[in-house]
Design a protein that fits this description.
- This protein is of the alpha/beta class.
- It has 5 domains: 5-72, no CATH class; 85-177, OB fold (Dihydrolipoamide Acetyltransferase, E2P) (Beta Barrel), CATH 2.40.50; 188-312 and 387-455, no CATH class; 459-495, no CATH class; 505-538 and 547-772, Metallo-beta-lactamase, Chain A (4-Layer Sandwich).
- Helix content is 48%, strand content 16%.
Length: 779
């Protein structure tokens, strides 16, 4: 057999698995098809002189992995029901909400389904309690906006089957007997309390993240700093932490002069015990498989870390957990280790030429640089940002992890001796302070986090191929220039991925729940954001923070970045309510914005005030368009503002809504009408001013409220399509049946974001099409 047999089989198995998994990203499928054709052609070609057993093994592995993936894809779904019902179960875990509004709890229902629900302050049951709840058992969402990750896949990786919507707790009582399923969560809860008591926050959460991946108590700003510096992997129990465990066990047992095979076996057992303690999350299982393969190689007297050990780990995971192969964490894990194998020797020789570094420092530099070289393209695709100081941050933080993990574990082991436990915590506070200080300092540097549009899979594949070819090319005469040029070109493709313009107008009405956020992209690449999503704010002007902004951070800004929009020609705030202004401040902080258009109404909501203050701080001018104002782009797109007019509407049902910015968007013969939350009073004013309201598409006002979309107004617009931005099971009863009836009576085909997800309109100025993310129009 060839020496690369295991590596080839692992590649064939991964390719066959990806071919049959429904979760495989669409842009990866062409590469998978090419891989399938290559493997099948190699294995089946007639007259080949290669070892027949090798070709047969390759084909068997490919077919077996495909069959395993097909079997795993046919899972039995829990019995979902749109009706509200009662469910009983045991509380397995609880995670406090960042804003202190309660907690997210994980319930093991009586029928075996693991369901997630949010409970509010005062009714959070303890872990191990038995709860009777009422709610709607629903599946997690797939992508509801174009190109966004699937929440269903993310939750499945975490072992959660469903969610309970609109849930409330009816009764809480202690279980009749101890439940083995709650032992680990209770142990984690006790451990976190011990760490908090002696270390305080956020240091306690850093250690909890290292020891079992718990980081929910970290302040959002600090969590973002770990993300921006490329060090968030420190808080996720994975390869780094299991490597520390294996090294500690091997070091201790080697000092006792135990046989190498026994040392490796005990170390592997210790690694898997640590995985069990950390909750057996998929990244930890993957890393433990790799470490076990390395320890097995060491016990047999072979190279501890080799391509064959990596291939064995990949094969084990492909057949044990095929659904994980399509996940980003699978790719990140193997890219990291493969980059170390491919680049470590080359980097070490290069560093030796630069300076005579001590061996330990040189090793740390090599590992940090190799890891960053292997993972930054995937990190850019997954986290939508590039951390230029990632290698420096990891060099500062990673060497401390072994010490903080060891001291944290020792602190917990000596909790019954308070003086010793406190002394260990005091000692641990120094490296923890260094980690936190380093992360915060590096995150504050200019350009510490650069927003990145995800590169297509083929760009990443080309970069990876160039990176793997570098060590081989450097050994050839004149190969250095070719290798570095190839790496530079492929890196440029990742940094500035090619995205062809389709030459048309695109309007995306995003699914942001009971809110509005609309992205307009013009034929030559101009972009406008009309409202930013969010939620209504109930706290008044005294609020120091706003949950309304989280929708902008998690949905609106990522959508813009994923679609190559790093600059906005304008942001239009239709009116200042939090469900429209929530995402404006996050967009202003992350993107370059030329102008903000505001209606000019006085309002005390935090999200709106933060949007205006952020605009002023960023030097973005704020303008106040009135009826009759026109904006034009250089590619023929025109906005004509219909309102608000002066004097502003007063003494209506809701003056803030009635004075929304409203406008028509025209491109050649196509027209779309936007009215914010304008209601009947504003519609009467539009009609009285006798402006041309006829448009092919209407973004329905005020989420389809009964107080807007009057018959006279809809008769004047005569839309062929009507799009309602509305949240599922919202408390307002939107869209109102009367509004839907009016739209249908005048012949409009209706799309709703609660049923269809995001709705995208594309046009070349003559013909146009409406594309829902989910399903079809409402009958």
């Amino acid at each position: 057999m060839p020496p690369f047999t295991l590596v080839a089989c692992a590649a064939a198995a991964a390719t066959g698995t990806l071919a049959l998994l429904p979760e495989t990203p669409s842009d990866l499928r062409p590469l998978v098809a090419i891989g399938l054709a290559a493997f099948a052609g190699f294995a089946l070609r007639p007259g080949a002189r290669e070892v027949p057993q090798f070709r047969a093994l390759l084909l068997v592995t490919l077919v077996a992995a495909s069959a395993r993936a097909a079997f795993a894809s046919h899972r039995t779904a829990p019995p979902f029901d749109d009706r509200t019902a009662r469910y009983g179960g045991i509380v397995l875990d609880r995670t406090p909400a960042a804003d202190g509004s309660g907690a997210t709890i994980l319930l093991a229902l009586d029928d075996g389904v693991r369901a997630q629900m949010h409970v509010y302050r005062g009714s959070v049951p303890p872990i191990g309690a038995r709860a009777l709840v009422r709610g709607r058992l629903q599946p997690f969402d797939g992508p509801r906006n174009p190109d966004e990750p699937s929440e269903a896949a993310i939750q499945r990786e975490r072992g959660v089957d469903a969610r309970l919507d609109g849930a409330s707790i009816l009764t809480i009582r202690e279980p009749p007997a101890a439940d083995v399923r709650t032992l680990l969560p209770l142990a984690h809860q006790w451990a976190h309390e011990q760490l908090q008591r002696r270390l305080g926050e956020p240091a306690a959460s850093v250690v909890a993240g290292e020891l079992w991946g718990e980081r929910s108590a970290l302040p959002p700003q600090l969590r973002a700093e770990f993300q921006e510096t490329g060090t968030v992997h420190v808080l996720v129990t994975a390869g780094l932490h299991l490597g520390v465990v294996a090294a500690l066990v091997v070091g201790l047992l080697s000092a006792l002069a135990l046989p190498r095979a026994a040392t490796c076996a005990i170390a592997a057992a210790g690694v898997w015990l640590f995985v069990a303690w950390s909750g057996a999350q998929l990244p930890a299982v993957r890393a433990a498989t790799m470490v076990s393969a390395a320890l097995s190689a060491r016990a047999l007297g072979r190279a501890t870390f080799s391509w064959n050990a990596l291939a064995l780990a990949a094969l084990a995971l492909v057949f044990a957990r095929p659904e994980s192969v399509a996940s980003a964490s699978f790719a990140l894990s193997f890219s990291c280790v493969a980059a170390i194998f491919a680049c470590a020797q080359t980097l070490e020789r290069g560093l030796e030429r630069i300076a005579n570094f001590p061996s330990k420092i040189r090793e740390a530099l090599v590992l940090s640089l190799a890891t960053q070289l292997g993972t930054w393209p995937l990190g850019a695709a997954v986290f939508l940002q590039f951390a230029p100081y990632g290698a420096i941050a990891n060099l500062a933080v990673v060497p401390c992890v072994a010490a903080t993990m060891t001291l944290g574990a020792a602190q917990l082991a000596t909790a019954w001796l308070p003086p010793v436990s406190q002394a260990l915590a005091n000692l641990n506070s120094y490296p923890l302070a260094w980690i936190l200080g380093s992360v915060s300092a590096i995150a504050s540097l200019p350009g510490a986090s650069i927003p990145m549009t995800p590169p297509p899979a083929w760009c990443i594949a080309l970069y990876d191929a160039a990176l793997l070819a570098v060590p081989w090319m450097l050994r050839r005469t004149g190969g250095a220039a070719v290798a570095l040029a190839g790496l530079a070109v492929t890196a440029a493709l990742v940094l500035w991925p090619p995205r062809p313009l389709d030459g048309g107008l695109r309007v995306s009405v995003l699914d942001v729940g009971q809110a509005d956020a609309i992205v307009v992209q013009t034929p030559r690449g101009h972009a406008l954001l009309v409202d930013g999503g969010g939620r209504l704010e109930r706290g008044g002007p005294s609020d120091g923070d706003s949950s309304a902004e989280r929708v902008g951070e998690r949905t609106v800004v990522p959508f813009l970045v994923r679609h190559g929009i790093h600059a906005l020609d304008a942001i239009v705030i239709s009116h200042p309510h939090g469900d429209h202004a929530g995402g404006i401040a996050p967009a202003l902080r992350r993107l370059r914005v030329t102008t903000v258009a505001d209606g000019g109404q006085r309002y005390g909501g935090h999200a709106y005030r933060d949007a205006l203050e952020t605009a002023r701080a960023e030097g973005v001018p704020i303008v106040y368009p009135r009826a009759g104002t026109q904006w034009r782009t250089d590619d023929g797109v025109a906005l004509r503002f219909l309102g608000p007019s002066l004097p502003l509407i007063a003494n209506s049902r809701n003056d803030i809504n009635e004075n929304s910015i409203a406008f028509t968007l025209r491109y050649k013969s196509f027209c779309m009408l936007f009215t914010g939350d304008a209601g009947a009073a504003a519609e009467r004013r539009f009609l009285s001013e006798r402006v041309d309201l006829r448009c092919e598409v209407l973004k329905v006002g005020h989420h389809g409220s009964a107080y807007s979309s009057t018959p006279a107004f809809i008769a004047a617009v005569r839309p062929r399509y009507a799009i309602v931005s509305v949240g599922r099971h919202n408390l307002f009863g939107h869209p109102a049946p009367s509004t839907l009836e009016t739209l249908a009576r005048f012949g409009a085909t209706i799309y709703r974001t609660d049923e269809n997800g995001a709705v995208t309109v594309t046009t070349d100025g003559a013909a146009f099409a409406v594309h829902p993310a989910i399903g079809g129009p409402r009958a």
